[in-house]
What we know:
By secondary structure, the protein is mostly helical. It has one domain (about 1-145). Helices cover about 35% and strands about 5% of the residues. It is built from six helices and two strands, in the order H-H-E-H-H-E-H-H. It has helices at about 1-10, 20-35, 85, 95-105, 120-125, 125-140, and strands spanning about 75-80, 110-115. Strands 1-2 form a two-stranded antiparallel ribbon. The protein is globular, with a radius of gyration of 16 Å.
Amino acid sequence: MVGWLAGLNNTLYVARHARSEVLGQADQLRRALDAGRAVTLFAEGTTDGGAEVLPFRPSLFASLYPPLDDVKVQPVAIDYGAATQEIAWVGSESTGANAKRVMSRPGTFQATLRFLDPIDPHDAGDRKILATRSRDAVVAALPASGRGSDPLYPPR
């Protein structure tokens, strides 16, 4: 069902583990952006982190270079609050197994979406800086759930 719904929205699938296909995937994203389509990218590129925010993989940010006029990156922080550990999609869990686990969970949970300041690829300069700035914005927006502490860059 999830695949069917995704297909209705012209989903572009990214093979996260196919490093040899990254350039082609970035080109596919570029064509979609150039055609005026909105693109959502889960930039961690993995489910291994669980509740922590992993580095954003810059490879698919290459689709934004050279920058397109009027195309910006809109970082979005998704905060599940106290339910984060219970519903995190971790490791090799399938989409169906994760959906079943989340939907069969008793009670409710609140998900807060924080739409952060857009980042202009022109200002970032390159894909690696753009990925880092996007991740930094998301991490800074998550202190309410305790995820704002950054294990990759601990406070000094």
